[in-house]
Design goal:
alpha+beta, five-stranded mixed beta sheet, two-stranded antiparallel ribbon
Amino acid sequence: MVVLNVKKGEDAQFLFETTTTIAIDDLLVQLAEIYNERLRIDRLCMAMEQLAMHGISKTPQMIGLTDEQVAELKYKDETATYYPSGGSNHNRDDIGVRTGQAPNAQMQEVLRKTVGEAKAAIHKDLVKQNVKLNIGTIRDVFDKLKGACMIVYPMGLPKYDDVQIILDNDEDLAGKQAAKQVIETPLFQLWWAGKELQRGKVLSAYIGKNEKTKIVCKIQRRGGGAPVREAVYDEQTQKEMMAYAYKKQEEWKKLETAEEDDYMNAEWASSGQLKAQLHGTSGIRWR
């Protein structure tokens, strides 16, 4: 199987396993789904952390209002029907988005533990561990996160809560920073060795038919131009080369300041060296 080390810019994103016979169109669809779903998991984890800390979101028209303003406007609080299992603990949300009725400590731990496992399952460090990522793993992560929410909130979450919106894949990212990170499938490009992998071709047209190949390829948004090519040497090799060059530079500086006949003081330049070796007296030092 061919292994793709998929990068965005200089950052490794994930490893993906495929075959040389896959059509580029199919490959781009699969990579775009994994890439964008990883971003969605990150957003879901952030929302679930807020859910654990401050409870569910307020009714949309009540967000940012004080209790006095809510009473004056006669808004109806619809959050009472969504209560966490085991009761709640009050933890005020300073930005006024969530109710402040957080789950108890045990239920908070359920959410936080699941979030931690989800982040680990899609983390960039999996590339260093040579762990491949596929859409099956992504869907399994979503199922676990959804299951944790159902354990803590058996009555479900309101449709307007960020967690439920993300789970329903019904987000409106317009005007948000997250929208700049998402790359829709039609705009998704993959580059390798300074060349774009063109739709309508198969992967073997670029990398050959060796199924044991491992390549580093880069994600780019259509219209963004060619990404920066990979450095010839990795970071560790560059450090070693710089250290070696510095060492040689220092040696040359010492040679430049040394006298021309300094070598005469070296042991190997002694006229009696051979005689001392034959008599076994080489290396003796007198105090």
